[in-house]
User: Which sequence fits this backbone?
């Protein structure tokens, strides 16, 4: 039986969005406490009764998050334009390589906004 797991992480990062006009506040350097949610889908292990140890998820994605946490995102390769959308894609591409059961990344740059990839509707 397949089940869905979610695990939440938080990173603190600085960024600016280089393609916006200087009148837009996001064109200036500023910081976010990004909340990142990983959604995984997998079969339960018949003996252990779980899909994967949450500690193992943390160990696998920690090296990726360490590239972002307390860094200027614009300086990270592939994140020269670090919108939440591009952050989702960056994390999904790299996350799936280390965690094939990763099915979705959600990035919340504020408590009121979220961006997810892949979209539910294609
Ligand atoms: Zn921002």
Assistant:
């Amino acid at each position: 039986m397949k089940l869905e797991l979610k695990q939440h992480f938080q990173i603190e990062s600085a960024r600016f969005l280089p393609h916006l006009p200087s009148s837009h506040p996001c064109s200036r350097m500023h910081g976010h406490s990004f909340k990142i949610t990983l959604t995984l889908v997998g079969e339960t292990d018949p003996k252990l009764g779980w899909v994967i140890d949450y500690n193992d998820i943390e160990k696998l994605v920690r090296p990726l998050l360490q590239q972002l946490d307390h860094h200027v995102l614009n300086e990270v390769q592939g994140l020269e334009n670090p919108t939440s959308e591009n952050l989702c894609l960056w994390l999904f591409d790299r996350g799936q390589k280390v965690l094939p059961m990763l099915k979705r990344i959600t990035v919340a740059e504020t408590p009121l906004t979220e961006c997810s990839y892949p979209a539910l509707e294609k």
About this structure: The first helix runs from residue 54 to 66.
